[in-house]
Amino acid sequence: MAYPIDVTFKSISLTLTANYASTWKMWEGVRELVQNWHDGVYQTADKLDFPVSSDPVVQFSEPKQANFCDIYEAYAEHPKDGKRHQLGLLCYDRVNSRLQMVNRHIALHKRILLMGYSNKANKKETIGQFGEGLKVGALALVREGRLVTMETNKDRWRFDLQEDPNFQEKVLAVYVTGRTGPNQNHPLSNFELDAADTCTTVHLKEEEWKQCVDKFLFLKPPVNCVKTELGTLLLDPVNSGQLYVKGVWVSDLTEEDLSSGVDFISLQIDRDRNAVPKPSEIDHLVSCMWIKVLEKDPSKAQQYYHLLKDDKHRDVRHACQYTSSNVALLMANLFSLEYGEEAFPVSNQATEEELDMIKKELQRKVVLCNQTLLDILYKSGQHMSVVDALAVHRAASRTIIPFSTLSTEHRQVLQHAVCLAQMAEPTLSLACISVVDHPENVLEPCKSHGSFIDVPRWFLDLETTHHVCRLCSSQVTKCMCREVHLCHNFLQLRRDMISKPVQNIQAFQSYLPYRMDHPLMFVLTQVSQEVCEQAKSSSKFCQEIHNTSAMPSDQTAQQSHKICEERESFLQQEISKLEQQIAEISDQHRVEYTKLQQELQTFQQHQMSDEIQRVNIEQQLKADYEKKLKGKIQQLEEQIKRAEDHNLEMARNMNFEKQQREKSDNKLQELHQAMDMKEQTLFEEVLHWIEEHNNRTRSLQEIFKENLEGANSHEKVKFETLCQLCDTLMEDLQVQRFVCSICKIKKKDCAFQPCGHYQACAACADHILTTTRVCPVCNRHLTNVMKIYE
């Protein structure tokens, strides 16, 4: 829309071409203007005379309906008296289709039209940051043919497009004129503008404003929401997937799997209010915000639990990273309510073999879960991973097999394995090794607890060992696979090479440092076998083992008893070590406890000293305050006494003046009465003289008529002239201006309304008004009578 340029205007070119920010439309323009109004409200709040300890809290009222207008008020209440201070108004006029934004006590200067200039306070509540929103927003609106004006300071600005002769290009311009009046174009009585206020006006259709107002949370606050340190989580369905920053809509992330709406307090955005951070950063912020919401309002746990189960929403992509133990416990309780106490959560990526193992060993109901929910359930402490659950179950179901009940072959396998391991680890002995049995024959690895090693029974079975890793040729009738395999496990456990248990054969093989086809393992097997074959004649490696196998049963029992004694001795040593460690820890704790007691005593002394100092300061302040208060009270009493004396003197003066006024009123009344009597006397005297003049005139007329009969023509003319003069004199006496034209007796003092004829006295005027109600002069209908005082 082009407006004719008034020659009286002062035009200011802003060097913004008409196509600058071409993607900006109506919404972007309105967003920037409303955003500037919002920031101006906080700028006005900073000017309020509030106590230093309490900053003004800006509030926005619900829209009020008045004269077909929706009026939003921004205000702040004083913390002491609760007085409401208006900071600004935002009004949409549905009749004139215009949006008006008023900022109280803010007068703008022309320098804000410079690109990049901004006088906004650096506060967390302010939205704008680039100093160009007003200009670019006005350009977007003007480009669509909308009228944008501002009344500020002493000027009125109108934004429009004009061709700049310096650049030969159409640019945004501001036409500056004088402000025509404080209330022009603002007919509402509650919408007045002072000279120090600023009003921005833009023309919008009603349906356009309805689309825009929903995108400002400070104008249309959400119902179902929870505020946190990071921002506000919006749980209303209408806000689902919507991203806001400081109450202003930024983008719709519904198609990007954002379930809830979010209003961030701080988020890096560009000039077009597009989110600059990577999507993962937004995911982290939303995930952290949800946890803070649940800690603040646990009633939202059910909704969050459904988001976790779905596993497609961005709200929970990093949930486990921010979940606290309390929130995890809430999720675990909801999981148990849904699936029961016997439910066992398992990853939905688990294999059928793992699921069968859980059902067979744990005999629990398997529930497939996504990894996020699974990690949170583990974090609660009420559920554990498959590996841990199997380890606990198997540890509870294991039984230790006495060494004496093992077969001779199995005892020799263990002895051979220990002898092999002692070559690299001399401290290893058969006394620290226990053979355990699992009722379900699960292929578990060797495990260590402290200095002891538990060897599952399957390690002693040749067929099972060959199934796991065959280290010998299939034609060999006697091999050392079991011994080498056990030796390898012993050494690895001693060196903490195995960090966690495994639950199946394939996983167990993955922990072997050497694969079963590794040449070194084959070499070790062959060497061990050859040495063992020569043990009877020359080798000291396992000669004792073979000699023990040839002993009678009573000697074998003695040998087993000897092993038990060694085991008991080893246990005693372990107990001594543990007791020594406990003593060291106890001594360490005692030292720390003594240190803490000393620190506590020092802290108590400091606290006592601070308390004494605080009491002294409090007493000093109390004494000073009482002294000042007494002085103030004395001053107030003196002021009150002076005020009372002054009031008493004023009362005396008023009484005296009242008496003088009454005397004056009495004298004035007497004077009025004397004046009325004098006026009546003069009036009667005038009437008397009028009557005398009338009589004399009539006498003269009669004389003239008598003399006229015998007079000549010349005298006749003279007498006729005198008669005419007498008639004129009679008429003048009858139409005297102070005599009532109706009764011809009393003084006229009333004028008829609405014609205004001043012709009657009070009595005649009242009679006409009650009877004919018609003016005797112009015959016009009368409404009332006005008293005239001359």
| Approximate shape | elongated
- Compute the number of structural domains: 5
- How far do the termini sit from each other? 64 Å
* Rg measurement, Å: 55 Å
The helix tally amounts to: 19
Mean pLDDT: 79
Q: How many strands in all?
A: 24
Helix content: 40-55%
Q: How would you sum up the major sheet?
A: 10 strands, antiparallel
Structural class: alpha+beta
- Residue windows where pLDDT falls under 50 for at least 5 positions: 1-7, 183-190, 497-517, 534-538
Amount of beta strand: 15-25%
Domain RING-type: 740-779
Coiled coil: 561-588, 622-681
InterPro entries: Znf_RING, Znf_RING/FYVE/PHD
Keywords: Coiled coil, Metal-binding, Zinc, Zinc-finger
Can you lay out the helices and strands and say which pair or pack?
Layout: E1 10-17, H1 26-45, E2 59-60, E3 64-66, E4 69-77, E5 84-93, E6 98-103, H2 133-143, E7 148-152, E8 155-164, E9 169-178, E10 198-203, H3 206-213, E11 225-227, E12 231-234, E13 242-245, E14 248-252, E15 261-264, H4 279-296, H5 301-310, H6 319-322, H7 325-339, E16 343-347, H8 352-362, E17 365-369, H9 371-380, H10 386-397, E18 399-401, H11 408-422, E19 433-437, E20 447-449, E21 452-456, H12 462-468, H13 481-494, H14 505-510, H15 519-533, H16 543-549, H17 553-709, H18 713-734, E22 750-753, E23 758-760, H19 762-770, E24 784-787
Parallel strand pairs: 13-15, 16-17, 19-21
Antiparallel strand pairs: 1-9, 2-4, 3-4, 4-5, 5-6, 6-10, 7-8, 7-10, 8-9, 11-12, 12-15, 13-14, 18-19, 20-21, 22-23, 22-24
Keywords: Coiled coil, Metal-binding, Zinc, Zinc-finger
Coiled coil: 561-588, 622-681
Pfam families: zf-C3HC4_3 (PF13920)
